[in-house]
Amino acid sequence: MLAASYDLHRFERRRVTALVGSYGSGKTELVLGLAAAARQSDKPTLIADLDVLKPYFRSREAGQRLAALGVTMLAPEGALANADLPIIPHQVRSAIGREDLQVFLDVGGDPVGARVLGSLSDVLGRASCDLFLVVNRYRPFSDTFERALEQARFIANAAQLPITGVISNTHLLDETTADDIDYGLDVARPLATALGVAVRLLGVPASLLPHFAKRDDLPPLVAIHRQMLPEFLGGVVCTPGGTA
After folding, report:
1. Which domains does the chain have, with CATH numbers?
2. pLDDT digits (tens, 9 = 90+) for 192-206
3. Are 228 and 49 in contact (CB under 8 A)?
4. Is this prediction's pTM over 0.90?
5. In 3D, which of 166, 235, 227, 239 has the Cα closest to residue 33?
6. pLDDT above 60 (res 158)
7. 170 vs 153: CA distance, rounded Å
8. Which residue among 35, 98, 209, 241 is the one 20 to 30 A from 71 at the CA level?
9. How is residue 239 annotated by DSSP?
């Protein structure tokens, strides 16, 4: 099953959750896992794939597996499913407005990708919405506090929404070490302070959980189980089984 959980019982969020950040920060993996974990509550759960920038490595690729967990995927269908076009399903607005629905928005990278939220800012402004900035210090424009803060402000301006929390998700895929996680926190913490918010989650590869679970100086941990792998010349494949 898809999962990204550890002590998510300490993670408080609003009904609508949008994840933004630089390319490669890990937004899609987080959206998949958080939605799967949220579905364990009584409310129906939906992911809206709003990545209109790249034709691969999008949350829609895991649609069938999510459906098996009871999570609905909202994305362009048929011939448009893999189109490199700025298509937003018309049902997104009504989904955001439904009080009985938990909604996760998977947004494209950088300020350019965040513009899609600007086009929905009227309905998002009326909803109970969190805008979480996912920070991977190893990505361009996030390697220093100054650059990360500038990027955060560009993204918030494009989204026309305030950032309500930071998710520290510094990683080097399968090469991530415990030192890398702390290296990312060294930027995420002052960044959150400068934005007037908190570090709401700390992304940790599942293999490193025993190391971090013993510490009491950390925000809620989210265990990252990598679900999507790039194929040669683009596209993605889900990892076999995808078990937690």
Report:
1. 8-233 (3.40.50.300)
2. 999 999 999 999 988
3. no
4. no
5. 227
6. yes
7. 19
8. 209
9. P
